[in-house]
């Protein structure tokens, strides 16, 4: 993405933007602070999100999907050039093994990208694997399978070290499909024991992020099924172990924002896998189903991080984890990043002082007015201004379409490519 | 499965069986009637259930999976020989296309099997397909796609006619992943229009069964999402259109037995896809999660079919639709059939007269006592006796293991076979 | 609420308003049309919503609750004076029996109010009732109970006729708490028979609205449990019977907007009971939990009503049905009305033509962009302008507080009053 | 309940019982051990369960409800005489304040009853209360309210000490109805601080049981909302603080048995409030909706308690917490106790050794067979035999009806009595 194209586009739309920005800016108390925070805030893109995901019922590829890790990095580079908010990439091993770390880092650096948390995978059998994960990995009844899975995680850490990453993200599909299949206690203890061995292999400045999920692909129990189980493991492991929240990994009606608040309080919140969902782990575009919930989560994050003096941009990990089998993945990711930053901007606009007063006096109607006043504000011009200042496009998705990026990719890569991933 | 093996097994266990049967038989009011009904009651096996199913996260095959339709039929034959309750097979097109119907029918007949409802598939793109179902099939905005899907259904009917089937089972994954993607009304009307064309192609003695499902693989809306939508379509189509209930296709906490009762009342209940689930369309072994619910459904079925004078065995369609990626598929199907027949037997034991009186006088505690008295009865000896009389095994799964059937299949077919299906 | 107070308040804030309105107005295609529609759009207030609701665990009254129907009308008058969007009141019989209809109508007319749908109540036993509704009303096994409930509904119609209402709203709590308690089919048929008798008593220009709800106060089954059951009854009853949608009356994850679209298509949508919820029938302030869902519902309403040429304001019924045991009821209702009109205004801003094109070409990302562009617009100035033109307050809740209305009510009515209702 | 009536009843039915018992006894490996455990196993009855509960929509009293604590104790005495499995009563303060502990204890002792955990109540305002719990109690923003609630709990402990109880059961309804109302972190910390003060007042041999619940009566957040939050509090408080599981206090589809297993592992399981539910905290008769889930929970309990060497009868707390607005409360409680003991008996029949082997080798079908073999066994004769040996009735509910106990109570107490409680 050549910068001049972005500049040209911005030039054409600057007047309209200016009018909108000037309007809303007048109502923002600490404008510079807000804009600086918006500029500083980046969300990592997972390497598997550049291809079209599927379901067990089928996978409908789009065209021009990246065939290599380099092409995936290039796609993230396109996104980052447009929105200046996606400056890192999160690798999933073994879907994307960086054979030559130096070259890959250099390639990424060309786009201003670095490497976020690395993700292990013990929920699928790899071609050359000696043992199968059919009945789980770190929780397995067979020590040999556990050892294989532990070694895989240690290998992933090594890849991460080479790439300059500093966190291992672990999602286990381990669980059971039928009552009786598992002894829950032993499964938990095996998992803990396995994680302790992985924990021991962490470099000093690394963290391990422990994801939880109630169901799928196992449909009776999951061994790390909710935040309480993840937190229990993280507590037993030590300070470098934290709980990762994937927005789609909850039972119906869960109050996620409360969980976020408490994990922050306990200094155990690793960060987020962002997506949206209506039924389960639907992996839909962030903010496409319930944007108010996303705002409420950011409201807790801003409040809780400020209470602990954490830097919003770097205090915890931010990553998208969505699938999108009916959209152009790049457009989908741009929409997700935009939705996240809108929620963040709205949270920054909350009148904190008034809210604390309303809460203290149990003025519930007032508290709601305060939150909704921030939420109902059209903050898109603030995001656009932050992008403009950082060299991004006023309207990333519009420019992406105007430039026909996908058509170019299809010409380069073909119409029937299939990227690695789900 | 040679009959003498079954007979030998039964001979060894006949005394123990006789003691148990004699005990329970004394408490069964109309013993002969119950046993005859249990003998007559068969549940169709879908052709795709003989292989190991998977999820979007992976598929872990077992060994000895059937490589051809003939081998699938052979596996159903094994099940039926053991339990004498699975005398038909339900084909899924195009996973299992019967190229030579006469030969296939003869092959099936060797095992005492015939062909139940045929299932169309417009939720995956076939290799040679001109148009994609990425955005749906019968509801598609593009008439050409709808026409392709209509033609496929008509083709499936033709296959079914050749096989002696008399029902087309339609499950549409058509829906949307994001708000705005679909116009719900137009999608419904396109679906209706498409179904009308398929309906017109039905032979006189055929039915079309319309399945509903709230989500997956689409995660915002499904065009035939609940029983109300299926029933609305079926009502507009005509008498040959009926609603098919898949137990896993409901939102959390749905009272399925009430839906069953009302569809029976309206003469619109096509039949069942049996399975069990804890979270969504988990496709678990029937009766493995909530057997009391299964009993309550059968209680409504027996009551409602008796009220309309329907034959239990043939009045509506009975089919298993489960997946089982951690079990031997044959064992899983034997367990499912057993669970279904247990629920049916318990429902037959309900003291109907007393229940009507308790209901009439709102004696709620009594009504519960009556249902639970039937449910708490150990009816396994009744099932075993019915099997014995029909030439099946007293304990199908025990004999299946004793004979080492799976090992033989692995030797014949190999350890790494993968059957067609999900 | 004296008009001069409102005018004074508006005068003080007119400049700020004008700036905001001018900004957003520039982006609204058919500004006059939108403003006119907003002015015309009113939402009825139920008579029971002026007091503080409770739960089975307790009820915490606020102060100054209305002690009589006249005081309730006065409170609605206050709301309507402030927001000019609540010009009718919906009575619940027997909580609020209008002993002298002429006087009550005159009293309401002083505030510019008329009477919307009347609501019957057969879910509680009245003091002088001969028979109990412990086991239901219109579905009861005992004809005498059904007759009593039918007569009550006919009485309610009579009250409604005197008040100038033209619809009877029926919510039945009839259901069962335990398996076996009910015969679902007979319960449905008794309900249908009872409704037919009520239907026969409807004046020519009246409608009967049939509400559905999956659970509570019965926790195993509800006899009119979902839209499909309500629709089935309404279809059998005739053209004057329609289905009423209460937003809180759905199982988890239900796609309500799809139901709305289909009911509109079938000409069977009576209207709405607005509220919001996170878990069940929580009866929270409209738009307080999931405002995007509310917008999506209005998007379907606008599209579907336009497709049928219905007047938005009068084509179907609009009513709030919320409880609010921790807020001042008047403030809560003002917040609810505001949230409804925000969603409506946003739906009016959707670029319909572009959306149809995106849908037709399955451009899913574009369709989402179109909906979100409307939703993210800050439409509050449009609502304020519509209110201003109608004589209402620029900011109703701010003025309500500034004037200390509640304090005045407490002085007049006392701090410990308890209004009739839940 | 005179013993001779029970003996007479048993005498009449002894032959039938003997035949059934002899049949099943032959299949029970350690018959004496099982029978002794069944005899030893008692479930406490809460004092509020003897009256008819209601919902926010109404309360339909039965007749003969107990008017005093003495009458409640008498009713529990009746239950215990019949089933010999309900030898304690759990008091709810202030619904049932034992003014004269010595007399009450003596009264209870006449029936062979003692006092189980005492329950505090800070979810309702008491008549003479200075401060309101409208916005919570132990989590309240106002220290004065927290202090009042702390003092109430300390008072309840005092009542408990006098009665010979040794546990305080705390359920907090504290939470919020709307986003913004609460600061989750501060609410949690206030709760912790309050509980620490209550903890400090616990006698040495006492425990405090901390219940969790996701929603109702608050519908946005609950401050102790899930097991993870309860466990976090209990961990911070110390060894005397444990987590109490109420079966109805979970989000849809929660795997409760896994939670039970992990709490046992962590030595943090206080015990149970038994009931059943289909939608939420429905407070239905135990085992009336999903008896297999109850069995699975007991399977974890037996396994986990055995692993820690806990006495089944006394190792943790067992209590019913159900409501039943359509049943005779005494019949309902008898049904609940029966369902609990059936599940317990079935769990005792599980072939533990075979299950461990199946789990170790991931023989999932086998593991299911083992569990279902125990579950499908008709254990009612074992329960009857255990009752017989203890002096209870072979069939408690049948005898209760035969003796016309309720009619007698109505004559004694009147037809319109209303017991204290929900």
UniProtKB/TrEMBL annotation, chains A, B, C, D:
Keyword Metal-binding assigned to the entry: answer is yes
Q: Which GO terms describe its molecular function?
A: isomerase activity; metal ion binding
Domain Xylose isomerase-like TIM barrel, residue spans: 98-283
Q: Which UniProt keywords apply?
A: Isomerase, Manganese, Metal-binding
Q: Where is the signal peptide?
A: none
Is the keyword Cell membrane in the record? no
Q: Out of the domains of life, which is the source?
A: Bacteria
Annotated Pfam families: AP_endonuc_2
What's the protein here called? Sugar isomerase
Species this protein is from: Mucilaginibacter corticis
């Amino acid at each position: 993405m050549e910068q001049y194209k972005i500049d040209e586009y911005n030039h054409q739309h600057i007047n309209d933007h200016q009018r909108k920005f000037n309007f809303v800016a007048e109502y923002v108390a600490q404008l510079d602070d807000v804009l600086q925070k918006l500029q500083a805030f980046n969300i990592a893109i997972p390497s598997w999100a550049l291809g079209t995901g599927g379901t067990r019922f089928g996978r409908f590829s789009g065209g021009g999907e990246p065939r290599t890790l380099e092409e995936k990095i290039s796609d993230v580079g396109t996104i980052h050039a447009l929105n200046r908010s996606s400056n890192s990439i999160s690798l999933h091993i073994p879907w994307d093994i960086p054979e030559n770390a130096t070259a890959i880092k250099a390639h990424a650096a060309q786009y201003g990208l670095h490497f976020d948390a690395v993700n292990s995978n013990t929920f699928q059998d790899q071609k050359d694997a000696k043992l199968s994960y059919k009945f789980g990995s770190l929780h397995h009844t067979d020590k040999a399978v556990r050892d294989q899975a532990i070694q895989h995680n240690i290998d992933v850490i090594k890849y991460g070290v080479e790439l300059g990453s500093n966190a291992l993200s672990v999602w286990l599909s381990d669980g059971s499909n039928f009552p009786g299949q598992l002894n829950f206690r032993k499964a938990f203890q095996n998992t803990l024991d396995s994680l302790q061995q992985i924990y021991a292999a962490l470099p000093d400045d690394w963290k391990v992020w422990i994801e939880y999920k109630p169901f799928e692909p196992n449909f009776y129990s999951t061994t790390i099924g909710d935040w309480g189980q993840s937190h229990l493991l993280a507590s037993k492991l030590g300070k470098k172990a934290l709980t990762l929240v994937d927005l789609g990994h909850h039972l119906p009606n869960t109050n996620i924002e409360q969980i976020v608040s408490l994990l922050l309080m306990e200094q155990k919140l690793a960060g987020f896998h962002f997506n949206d969902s209506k039924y389960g782990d639907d992996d839909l575009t962030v903010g496409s189903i319930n944007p108010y919930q996303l705002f409420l989560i950011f409201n807790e994050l801003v409040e809780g991080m400020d209470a602990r003096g954490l830097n919003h941009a770097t205090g915890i990990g931010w990553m998208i984890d969505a699938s999108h089998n009916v959209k152009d993945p790049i457009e989908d990711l741009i929409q997700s990043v935009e939705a996240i930053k809108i929620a963040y901007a709205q949270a920054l606009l909350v009148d904190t002082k008034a809210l604390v007063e309303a809460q203290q006096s149990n003025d519930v109607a007032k508290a709601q007015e305060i939150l909704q006043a921030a939420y109902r504000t059209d903050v898109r011009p603030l995001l656009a201004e932050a992008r403009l200042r950082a060299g991004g496009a006023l309207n990333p998705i519009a420019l992406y379409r105007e430039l026909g990026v996908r058509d170019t990719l299809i010409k380069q890569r073909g119409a029937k490519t299939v990227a690695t991933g789900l």
